[in-house]
Design a protein that fits this description.
461 residues, mainly alpha, two-stranded parallel ribbon
């Protein structure tokens, strides 16, 4: 006895049970059930508008679809591998409830354009959610920068102390990263925002449909232009996966730095207990596991992007079953990104900035050496390359004698050049080193306040 499937008219036997399970996507694409039902409601509304089905049929189908969704949310409907995918599941349930009228729901469409519609609706929703989370994260970064506008810390290159900077300048660097992520998602939304339904399997349909009616009903900006491209296109998913990968890379960088700044040896910051875990054997441990997981999950997000790129790299037009493999990477990356953004924002809300430790760390490491070289250039007229060499020798002398540039006596300075005078100490003070850097985008308070103003204006627009 053949178990009848909606597409099984030309087959002589049931699917092999192993293939049936292998072929099924129902256990992950069920995430699209609300999008699928909303798409079907818009589709049958258009069919009625074009007199392809009656108003009575439309109303019965829409009422039943809404009831199916309600029952699903209340866990009153079960599904199995034999249901194949969310589209077949909904249509079978519709037919079971209202008979032959339910069979009309699939008039003038294919699963090929139906799945494209569902996934675009999903991507639009999740894109908007990620945009909101990025916006909230940037606002939190701005708030932290404002509350710590004068805090001084060492700036690093190569994980070696380089120059003194404001902590507000440091944290706003991540504000700029996440703002670029926000712009990328806004651009991605524009590419998602084309309604694909009506492309059918690949060639369009013979029915007198109105794709623009469906587009307007589902709040798309327009419709896709080429039916072959429409059912083949997964570029918007790739772009979303890429954008998420970049977000996770940025999150991983700040997570890594916070892990380092939180070490007992530095203690520039303290991570709240709520985002740390203990050790099963070492009772003293407080591990920054939330940050480590953000860092670790970045790898799987990269893998999801490469997975789909590889799936699509040699596919002939138009639709191929390989494309079913677009959903699990997408769902996983979206969920990982959303959770990571939520967690990092909460970590920032509870973050403790240890201002004294940051300032103390600036007292060693010769982070004002560049300013001493600039002093020799600007005050003494020495060419920069010569000044660089002189300061290098001074630093070597300090290391050998366990001194800092600030503690070096004027007589010791004059061993290297008579041009150095008493004003050198003011020129190499941390405050002076920072506030002299007034170049646009620099670390002076004046420049940081401009950065804050500009970033606020950007995210409010």
């Amino acid at each position: 006895m053949i178990t009848i499937k909606l597409w099984q008219g030309r087959f002589n036997k049931d699917s092999d049970s192993l293939f049936e399970e292998f072929n099924a996507s129902i256990f992950f694409d069920i995430n699209l059930i609300e999008d699928d039902i909303n798409g079907s409601i818009a589709h049958v509304s258009m069919l009625a508008e074009k007199k392809i089905i009656s108003e009575t049929e439309k109303n019965l189908i829409i009422e039943t679809l809404n009831n199916i969704l309600k029952d699903f949310k209340n866990n009153l409907i079960t599904f199995s591998y034999s249901d194949e995918d969310v589209h077949m599941f909904v249509e079978k349930e519709l037919i079971k409830r209202i008979g032959d009228i339910g069979k009309k729901v699939h008039t003038a469409r294919s699963r090929n354009d139906q799945v494209c519609l569902d996934i675009r609706l999903f991507c639009k929703r999740k894109n908007e959610e990620i945009q909101r989370l990025l916006n909230n994260l940037i606002k939190k970064i701005i708030e932290i920068a404002e509350n710590n506008i004068d805090v001084i810390m060492p700036g690093f290159t190569h994980l070696q102390k380089a120059q003194p900077i404001l902590f507000s300048h440091y944290i706003l660097a991540y504000g700029q990263m996440f703002y670029r992520d926000l712009i990328r998602f806004k651009n991605n939304y524009d590419l998602i925002d084309f309604m694909p339904l009506g492309s059918a399997a690949l060639a369009g349909t013979t029915y007198d449909i109105d794709r623009f009616f469906v587009s307007k009903m589902l709040s798309f900006s327009s419709v896709t232009e080429n039916s072959i491209d429409t059912v083949s296109d997964r570029d918007f998913i790739l772009e979303m996966l890429f954008n998420i990968a970049v977000i996770q890379m940025h999150l991983s960088r700040i997570a890594e730095e916070f892990i380092i700044w939180n070490m007992d040896e530095l203690k520039y910051i303290d991570i709240d207990d709520a985002f740390c875990s203990g050790s099963s054997i070492m009772p003293q441990k407080k591990n920054p596991d939330a940050l480590e997981l953000i860092r670790g999950k970045t790898g799987r997000v990269y893998g999801n992007l490469v997975s789909l790129l590889t799936t699509l790299k040699a596919l002939p037009l138009a639709y191929n079953k390989d494309m079913q493999e677009d959903k699990e990477p997408l769902f996983d990356s979206v969920e990982t990104c959303i959770n990571s953004l939520l967690i990092i924002t909460k970590i920032l809300e509870t973050l403790k900035i240890n201002k004294e430790n940051m300032l103390k760390a600036c007292s060693y490491g010769f982070i004002n050496a560049t300013d001493l070289a600039d002093y020799l250039v600007q005050k003494c007229g020495i060419p920069f390359r010569d000044a660089h060499f002189i300061v290098g020798n001074i630093v070597k002398y300090c290391i050998n004698n366990n001194k800092t540039l600030d503690s070096l006596a004027l007589e010791e300075y004059k061993q290297f050049t008579d041009l150095i005078d008493i004003d050198v100490y003011n020129e190499i003070s941390l405050e002076c080193c920072i506030n002299k850097r007034k170049s646009y985008g620099g670390t002076s308070k004046e420049s940081v306040l401009v950065q804050l103003k500009n970033l606020k204006e950007k995210i409010e627009n």
